[in-house]
Automatic annotation (TrEMBL):
Record key words, sorted: Signal
Originating organism: Methylobacter tundripaludum
Protein name from the UniProt record: Putative ABC transport system substrate-binding protein
Endpoints of the signal sequence: 1-23
Keyword Magnesium on entry: no
Length: 313
């Protein structure tokens, strides 16, 4: 009788530990382009927190800490044989993809993901909100603006720009574009574009944003012609953007982790790349007042952070 009861206990324990959350979870390899970058480090931290809460195992590889990163990454993938590879940043994704060999792939913090080679079984969280969301918010904040201009490179951003145009047209806003082949053409392109528009929109195009000089050139030209600048990241607020609607960094990390767990269970919802679930809206009141822009005062309740003019000592 005691033996029967003991056997029943073993069966119950086996069933208990086989339930979700107690089985040995899949191993995840986190490949970070540069963990010294605050954005990347924050995403990685939040991602790991969620994995830890759900008893997932992971190994982390930071490209910035290895002189021969590609070879060492290749060796690590062979040794660890992870179920899923999570890449933070474009460089991490590009290197990991070469050696993935039918692994499940996940990415975030990638500038203009539309230009990536994305195979079946690869998912991601976009770097920006959808263009429809951004345009709707822009119209809400600045109801009188009718023409918005942007620079882009046709190779990297053509599909994204076409989507922006379509979404804007549905809301009665005209998108005026100017394509550039390289950073040397930005100055002339701005001279042609700025007089035609009410606001300039900075998108995450790698040619337009090829370096600090390009960013400086955009804001100097916009200031000279008294045109407000809208940007996809609050990093540009300090340069003079009047408004920035950026994806919340910490939320991207948590969202990526939840997507990773769904991928592990083969329960990924429709859509290869998800729109960020959270956003942060920053308003530059100093620039707003300087340009005397007509602003919807009711929209202030939606703003997360208001930046004023710097005080001179």
């Amino acid at each position: 009788m005691k033996m029967i009861n003991f056997c029943k206990l073993l069966v119950l324990l086996a069933a208990f530990f086989a339930t979700p959350g107690f089985a040995e979870s899949s191993k995840v390899l986190i490949v970070n382009s540069d963990n010294t970058v605050y954005r990347y480090e924050t995403i990685a931290t939040e991602f790991k927190k969620v994995l830890q809460q759900n008893a997932y195992q992971w190994t982390e590889f930071n490209l910035d800490r290895h002189a021969n990163a590609e070879e060492e990454l290749k060796r690590l993938i062979q040794q660890e044989n992870p179920e899923l590879i999570y890449s933070i940043g474009t460089k991490a994704y590009s290197l990991a993809r070469i050696h993935a060999h039918n692994k499940k792939m996940l990415f975030s913090a990638v500038i203009n993901w539309r230009r990536l080679d994305i195979d079946a079984g690869t998912y991601g969280v976009a770097n920006e909100l959808s263009s429809a969301q951004e345009i709707s918010l822009l119209r809400y904040f600045f109801p009188t603006i009718k023409k918005i201009g942007l620079l882009y490179n046709d190779k990297f951003s053509r599909e994204y720009v076409e989507t922006i145009k379509k979404d804007a047209l549905a809301l009665g806003i005209n998108i005026v574009t100017q394509s550039v082949n390289d950073a040397q053409e930005i100055g002339e392109a701005l001279d042609q574009l700025l007089p035609k528009i009410d606001m300039f929109w900075i998108i995450s195009d790698p040619i337009v944003l090829s370096g600090k000089d390009s960013v400086r050139q955009i804001f100097q030209a916009a200031e000279q012609q008294k045109k407000p600048v809208y940007a996809y990241s609050d990093v540009f607020i300090e340069h003079g953007a009047v408004l920035a609607i950026s994806a919340d960094i910490a939320t991207i990390g948590r969202q990526s982790a939840n997507l990773a767990m769904m991928m592990d269970k083969d329960k990924v919802p429709g859509g290869t790349v998800q729109v960020p679930a959270g956003s942060t809206i920053t308003l530059n009141k100093c620039v707003l007042d300087a340009l005397q822009l007509k602003f919807n005062q009711d929209a202030l309740d939606s703003v997360n952070k208001i930046v004023g003019c710097a005080k001179n000592d």
